[in-house]
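Researcher: I'd like a structural prediction for the single chain below. Treat it as a standalone chain; there are no partners to consider.
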Amino acid sequence: MTEGEKDKLGRALSCTTLDAGRRTMTEVWVLVINTGGTIGMVRQSEGLVPEANKLAEALKKVSIFHDATYAKENQLYNRFGIDALVLPRCSLYDSSSKQNIRIIYTIVELSPLLDSSNMTPSEWDKIAECLEANYEKYDGFVILHGTDTMAYTSSALSFMCENLGKTVILTGSQIPIYELRNDGRANLLGALLIAGQFVIPEVCLYFDNKLYRGNRVTKMDAGSFNAFSSPNLPPLANTDVDIIINWETIWRPDAMKKFETQKNMNSNVGLLKLFPGITATAVRAFLQSSMEGVVLETYGSGNAPNNCPELLDLLRKATDSNVMILNCTQCLRGSVSLVYATGKSLMDLGVIPGGDMTPEAALAKLSYVLSKPGLTFDEKKKMLSKNLRGEMTVVPIGIQITLKGCKFMQEIAKYLSIGCKEELATVRDVLTPSLACMAAKNDDLTALKILQDLGGNLSSGDYDGRTPLHVASCEGNLKVVRHLLKSGATVYAKDRLGATPLMNAVTFRNKKVIELLRGSGAHLSSQELVNVGTELCSLAFHGDLDGLLAWHLAGADLNQTGYDGNTPANVAMAAGHAEVIEFLNKLAS
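Model: Treating it as a single chain, here is the predicted structure.
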């Protein structure tokens, strides 16, 4: 290859990469998993029943759910080989026109589609398998589900999804989406908008303009669009005129591990609700030999009759036989405590306090913990007492740093004549992104910890959408990256140009950061991998071994072809870069 040919090839490679980036940066992909439920039901002689293979075609005909012009002009099917729908561009996506997001979504259906009354742990496994198989292909997930057992499924999935870093939202409706008057359109559209715009690393439930933590909800009304309640935790988000996310409430995993699911939940569990006059015979029948875990729904703040020795003896024998009993209150709101002697007597028997968990969450947690392999009985009991996914309220112990006690914030409050804590919190939220990004750039861990102690959201983005993790990944500040990950900072955040922290680390060749991010579940998005073969060929052409290694560590396939069908190895050989050829040959062997 002559020098002129080499130069021409290099220019062509660079231009193609730039054009590809412009074309795909703003697309966000959401997977909709349809399990059944009222939202997709049709009326038949026997009543409402789910109908398969109908929803996607119906939504294509509704303009608010599909922009046919965009899909055709951008050749979605030809580019990705799947039948996709795309939401129209809407000002609700982002208050700034700079972020031109297009939410593209595909629908898969479980077979058979079910009325949620027929939902079982086997279906939970199918949903978990679908999430696991598609986790790296999509930016967010929406699960369509019937309302009757939605709280059970959302609670179960919250525990089954370990080290979750993306938004998973369950939704449905009280009236089928095909009816003239229904709540299904608003619920589905709201869930798609949130899953496509925000990285909320939780299993959530969206209904009637509110986003709840999935393991905090219970169905409270069978005849209202406002069907669900979260008694002991305010909504994570409200979608009124604006979409307001309560970032302080978002649960963030602190484990630096990849996403995985725990399936095969233990089915030898049950709910036992106490009532006045409950007999020892009834309890004995319930505590049969196969029972391994029981959620005991008690009175008030966790109380049970302590004047029935036979009943208490049955509970003691059960716990002595390694049956785990979790104490939850029957009250809609409130928590189990040891205020009364009738409550303390249960703890003395080995019954585990369940805090303010809902019965649905308690049952799912019990089933999840009992299914964990390799743990002793005592280790499982300890795990049950921990707050695993934000399912229970834990009152912090010790001195807390407050906004009021921060001299910096006091000076700002004085200058702006701010008197109330709400206004002060607003100022903190405005300042945190810029201050945290500056601290990340300067490798200033102390400043980051102070902002964190003040309640600042270390996953929030600055004016350009860049989070502290983006900045630290660019700078190669390993200790800051590690602290942010342990604090629950999301590896899936995208800046205004669609770049993730992992993409930033690749760009700046920060290999140790790449390895750390990958170990925490980070992966290059499908959009970031579009035409990556051309970028790899460009690096091979210039003999950039460091750049190729960075892409390899980030999980890219170095055998992908460029715009002209050549692989990086072909280009390196033509350009005569022996080190690159040797490196690529080792990977191929």
